[in-house]
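Priority: medium. Attachment 1 of 2:
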């Protein structure tokens, strides 16, 4: 009986030692990888901002703008060297993707026209929903959202009465993508440099393909 007790105690001590060792190892790995992961994420975000905005000299401090109850988006306002507002990049998202959350960076010029977008995160089906990375900036059919203004254009899929062709066999992903774009515009329209609604409807001319390059 004593031998069994001794074996049980030894087993318990061994298990506890293994657990403590595992916890310490995992903690060390997390500490070692946290900073590189954070740097990579920040670099991706910075590159996305540059990709979706016209040439700019500097950005203002991040502005957090609510778009619905409990949902706030980050807006990065860009200015030229004379401190004139040239546009804004909005970090946006949709929770309605086919395979989960979709995160985008969408850039608008000073009139609210879409300059470009960058997909920050998506887990959609490869070869279907994942095509969103390029689909909505391809000048085929009615795919391209660049140059469009959500205050004027109906940025929803054509089968819902909108102006945009959905990704073939990926309507759910397309709806989620466009939901994120429309949310981005609502945040953009909430910043202090955004044009008034009447200005957007009267003087927001789409940007040319040369300006988009």
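Attachment 2 of 2:
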């Amino acid at each position: 009986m004593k031998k069994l007790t001794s074996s049980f105690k030894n087993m318990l001590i061994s298990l506890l030692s293994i657990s403590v060792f595992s916890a310490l190892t995992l903690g060390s790995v997390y500490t070692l990888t946290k900073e590189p992961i954070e740097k990579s994420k920040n670099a991706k975000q910075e590159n996305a901002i540059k990709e979706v905005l016209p040439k700019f000299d500097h950005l203002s401090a991040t502005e957090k703008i609510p778009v619905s109850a409990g949902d706030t988006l980050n807006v990065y306002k860009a200015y030229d060297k004379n401190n004139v507002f040239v546009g804004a990049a909005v970090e946006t998202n949709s929770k309605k993707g086919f395979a989960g959350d979709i995160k985008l960076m969408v850039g608008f010029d000073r009139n609210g026209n879409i300059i470009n977008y960058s997909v920050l995160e998506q887990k959609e089906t490869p070869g279907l929903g994942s095509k969103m990375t390029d689909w909505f900036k391809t000048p085929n059919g009615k795919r391209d959202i660049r140059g469009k203004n959500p205050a004027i254009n109906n940025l929803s899929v054509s089968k819902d009465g909108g102006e945009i062709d959905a990704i073939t066999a990926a309507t759910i992903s397309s709806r989620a993508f466009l939901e994120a774009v429309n949310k981005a515009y609502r945040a953009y329209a909430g910043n202090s440099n955004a044009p008034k609604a009447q200005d957007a409807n009267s003087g927001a001319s789409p940007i040319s393909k040369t300006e988009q390059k």
